[in-house]
Amino acid sequence: MASCPDADDVLLYNETGEVTESCIANVVIFRNGRRVTPPIRCGLLNGAYRAELLENGEISEETVSLSELKKNLSDQFRPQMAGGLSARGRPDLMCKQL
To answer: Which residues, including other chains, have CB under 8 Å from residue 79's CB and lie 6 or more apart?
Structure first.
């Protein structure tokens, strides 16, 4: 975040370009009318709220790639963060080019 001093948070990803989480929250995106969160195998922490949503069947685990976010969601990037708060932004305007 030091390279993006105006950012409130940063979206993290692994070496294969799969979205993992943000610095302060797990990520959930909307895909085909469903809520999807990256699986633990991508390298993220299993947050308590995320685990609860998975257990209750409110979200499912599927890989989310950076290319998907950039290609399909550039105007509607909406990660659902812990506590039910949502963020809005454009991946193409992030500090570091995806």
So the answer is: 11, 22, 25, 27, 28, 29, 86, 87
User: What would the CATH number be for the domain defined by 11-82?
Assistant: 3.20.10.10
Give the global pTM: 0.70
38 with 18: CB under 8 angstroms? yes
Domain definitions of the chain by residue range: 11-82
List Cβ<8 Å contacts ≥24 apart for 30-38. Answer: 30/78, 30/80, 31/62, 31/64, 34/59, 34/60, 35/59, 35/60, 35/80, 36/60, 36/61, 36/62, 36/64, 37/61, 37/62, 37/64, 38/62, 38/63, 38/64
pLDDT digits (tens, 9 = 90+) for 29-39: 888 888 899 99
